[in-house]
Amino acid sequence: MKKIAILGSTGSIGNSTLSICESFPDRYKPIALAAGRNIEAALAQAIRWRPKLISMATEELADTLRTRLRAGGITCVEVVHGTEGTVQVATLPEVDFVVSAIVGVAGLEATYAAVCAGKTIGLANKECLVAAGELIIAAARERNVALLPIDSEHNAIHQCMRGGTAAEVKQIWLTASGGPFRSTPLKDFSNITPQQALKHPTWVMGQRITIDSATMMNKGFEVIEACRLFNLPPAQVQVTVHPQSTVHSLVEFVDGSILAQISVTDMRLPILYALAYPERVAVAEKDRLTFDLKTLSQLDFSQPDFNRFPCLRLAYEAAEAGGKAPIALNAADEIAVAAFLEGRIAFMDIPRTIEQVLQVTTGPRPASIVEVLEADLAARQAAREVIATQFAPVSH
Ligand SMILES: NC(=O)C1=CN([C@@H]2O[C@H](COP(=O)(O)OP(=O)(O)OC[C@H]3O[C@@H](n4cnc5c(N)ncnc54)[C@H](OP(=O)(O)O)[C@@H]3O)[C@@H](O)[C@H]2O)C=CC1
Ligand SMILES: CC(=O)[C@@H](O)[C@H](O)COP(=O)(O)O
Ligand SMILES: [Mn+2]
User: Fold this and answer.
1) Is 307 annotated as a binding residue?
2) C-alpha 360, offset from chain centre
3) Where's the 1-deoxy-D-xylulose 5-phosphate reductoisomerase N-terminal domain (predicted)?
4) 395 falls in which pLDDT band (50, 70, 90)?
5) pTM here?
């Protein structure tokens, strides 16, 4: 029985992880949960799973949850809050495995603390690798901690890497769906609404990553995530547009062989792979995770268009620049995506904001998580200023 902590339990990945725990009750038991603001979902999870510990984003929310649990006669669940609460969840001594799935840099401190506490990590939160990848990887190496990617592409690469040694890898290919605007002409990008951008063609995910997929910043983050996880320079991490999202990524070896991983578009599969690693667990027919090859009629691959998707170019540039650039890339994107969803800026103002923040970002790579968070705050402030002074709200 593996005892699991889930950071971001009320989100898309959090719920998929709990669904795996439902399917394999003899193998995986969630004993610590960290939610954000969704009190109803957190309450339902606390009632269903009776975790030892549950965290909410604020003290007020934690008080409400505690009161409602007690009113229902549940006193065995300890309720904590804030960043400190997420760190407590991530480092609870009984926990063997931490699923890191809080969205954004809000998940960084808990993820880092889990690594430092020697927990095995199932990593969905790519933003913490973008912002602080070197520190997280170094801490994991020092403690011999396994960082198992849940992000579907990196999970696919992890599986393909079992077919050769790191020295035998020529390059890796991350597949990108291309998002909802894969074929939209550039002239129409100025009219894109949040509603349109939230319609991902192949995956159902949280709002931030869905908008990031629409701008292709998600793929940019994934390039940096791959560089960190697999110790490769950006030049050895390629992106290919594959609208079917059937091949989740590929590894090209020096002899010319290319290994690919194919499966259904369901995040329960990479989550299960990470939880079970190095074993593989047999999945029941009713769980619908197996791939029906008869449905495979067409696989398309093409070059990404850096003109229509400048976020992808900005991410490669930030990866090459290093220093504080990746931190600013993520922080500015986080602010710009929120502004777009609130109708304060247009779709193409997202890359414009990020580009301007990157232009004023200088300085060496931070040596600690505290310094990463300082650089993150500075880039957020710069992004807010760009948005307040240069862009007008949009009426769709
Ligand atoms: N969804 C997917 O298929 C994939 C997701 N990922 C990555 O996984 C991560 C999660 O994505 P996804 O599940 O889609 O996102 P969601 O928006 O669905 O969920 C985000 C989770 O983070 C919690 N959260 C947000 N802010 C805080 C905070 N300050 N403190 C504590 N918890 C917080 C939310 O809580 P609440 O809802 O209670 O406010 C929620 O549980 C992201 O980094 C994403 O890039 C990677 C690959 C695929
Ligand atoms: C499921 C997953 O891993 C997402 O990151 C997904 O890949 C997003 O799709 P895009 O390829 O459109 O960014
Ligand atoms: Mn992905």
Assistant:
1) no
2) 26
3) 4-133
4) confident
5) 0.98
CATH 3.40.50.720 domain range(s) in the chain: 2-150
Cα 178 to Cα 370: distance, rounded to the nearest angstrom? 35
85 lines ligand 1 (CB under 6 A): no
Q: Answer yes or no: is 317 a known binding residue.
A: no
Mutate to test the pocket of ligand 1, among 7, 12, 84, 217 (most ligand atoms within 8 A of CB): 12
Structure tokens given for 303: 């070059």
Whole-number Å distance, alpha carbon 279 to ligand 3 midpoint, is 22
- ∠ CA 245-247-252, nearest 5°, is 140
Which tokens in the block code for residue 264? 């259904």
Q: Per residue in 98-107, pLDDT tens?
A: 999 999 999 9
Q: How many other CB atoms sit within 10 Å of the CB of residue 148?
A: 22
ipTM: 0.99
**What type of residue sits at position 148?**
L
| Class in CATH terms, 2-150 | alpha beta
Q: For position 239, what pLDDT does the model report? A: 98
- Any bridge partners for residue 149, and if so which? 123
pLDDT at 120 over 90: yes
Distance between Cα 59 and ligand 1 center (Å): 20
- What's the order of all strands across the beta sheet hosting 258-262? 237-241, 169-176, 247-253, 258-262
Q: Locate 215 and state its tokens.
A: 């701008």
Q: Which of 115-119, 210-214, 287-291, 306-310 has the lowest mean pLDDT?
A: 287-291
Is any ligand 1 atom within 6 A of the Cβ of residue 101? Answer: yes
Residue 104 known to bind ligand? no
Tokens of 349: 């103002």
